[in-house]
Specification:
Elements lengths: L5 E5 L3 H12 L3 E5 L5 H18 L5 H10 E3 L3 H5 L4 E4 L5 H14 L5 E4 L6 H5 L8 E5 L9 E6 L5 H13 L3 E6 L6 H17 L5 H11 L6 H8 L1 H15 L7 H8 L15
Parallel strand pairs: 1-2, 1-4, 2-3, 4-5, 5-6, 7-8
Antiparallel strand pairs: 6-7
The structure holds nicotinamide-adenine-dinucleotide.
Length: about 280
């Protein structure tokens, strides 16, 4: 197994910055790249602030913060980010065309043995992998939001992913302090499929006036011990993100995943959830 010491994260948004934080904290030399000018620098700054807060609350030591700070840098180009990387984690927007284009480029610039991982929530790993020169090195590493807090790492195995890459992914997950599950590459994997199924049903109930958003959420929080109800969780994930996933699952798995009208209406109105100040709730 290749020893992983150098990690490149492509996409410095919500997920990329969070993944960079845990990678740097776990001791990987981590380079963060984003296509938008200044975004990688902002991602690094956010990450360091988040680590400092963790230290204040006693969830990280000052030494861990200093080490993470040393390990984490912003890269100015895709080439410099991926050069010499043993592991690349892509966290760019959820678009198959964009991810395929990126994986073609990544496999051009990276060494042949580099592991190419995608943080996609729902797209086919096999389809993304087929755009790369070496599809057997491509795997899904599905982190959850926020990456430093959420314990799960869903490892998604594409049709052509090599067994050694799966074993390495498990070892990486363990070093990042995550509990791993390994699932086959089917639409929505295990998590998004179940999560979106519950959220869609909650939205239909909201539309039908079965109960208010608060009451629907409390049903699951208090009745089933879910830490967050499905509508509140949709606000946190982003309604646009959930709509894209539901549309994809509807195409792949059938009508039961057809996005409810209320979801389309809120997205059209720019009510994308917490990040926009309003979704099913006001913030
Ligand atoms: N937000 C969530 O809760 C969540 C959870 C799990 C997985 N995901 C998945 O993670 C991925 C990223 O989601 P996010 O919420 O962080 O999105 P985001 O919009 O916050 O961040 C995406 C970043 O990618 C950058 N980008 C766009 N094109 C790029 C390119 N060609 N090269 C490099 N960077 C590029 C954007 O500038 C942006 O900063 C998606 O595939 C999403 O499905 C999201």
């Amino acid at each position: 197994m290749v020893e992983i010491t150098e990690v490149a994260i492509v996409g410095a948004g919500v997920m990329g910055s969070g993944i960079a934080q845990i990678a740097a904290r776990a001791g990987y030399r981590t380079r963060l790249f984003d296509a938008a000018p200044g975004a990688a620098d902002r991602g690094v700054a956010r990450t360091l602030e988040s680590l400092a807060r963790a230290a204040e609350k006693g969830r990280a030591t000052v030494e861990e913060c200093a080490a993470a700070k040393k390990n984490l840098t912003a890269a100015t180009s895709l080439e410099t980010a991926v050069r010499g990387a043993h592991l690349i984690i892509e966290a760019a927007p959820e678009s198959l065309a964009l991810k395929r284009e990126l994986f073609a480029k990544l496999s051009d610039h990276a060494a042949p043995e580099t592991i190419l991982a995608t943080n996609t929530s729902s797209l086919s790993i096999t389809e993304i992998a087929s755009a790369a020169k070496n599809p057997e090195r491509v795997i899904g590493l599905h982190f959850f939001n926020p990456p430093p807090v959420m314990k799960l790492l869903e490892i998604v195995v594409g049709e052509r992913t090599a067994l050694l890459v799966v074993a390495t992914a498990r070892a990486i997950g363990a070093r990042l302090g995550k509990d791993c599950i390994v699932v086959r590459d089917v639409a929505g994997f295990a998590t998004s499929r179940l999560g979106v199924a519950i959220a869609i049903e909650a939205m239909r109930m909201f539309e039908e006036g079965v109960a208010s958003a608060e009451e629907i959420d409390r049903a699951m929080e208090l009745g089933y011990n879910h830490p967050m109800g499905p509508l509140k969780l949709t606000d946190h994930v982003g309604l646009d993100v959930r709509l894209a996933i539901a549309e994809h699952l509807c195409g792949e798995l059938g009508e039961r995943f057809r996005p409810p009208q209320v979801l389309r209406r809120l997205v059209r109105a720019g009510k994308l959830g917490k990040k926009a100040g309003e979704g099913f709730y006001k913030y």
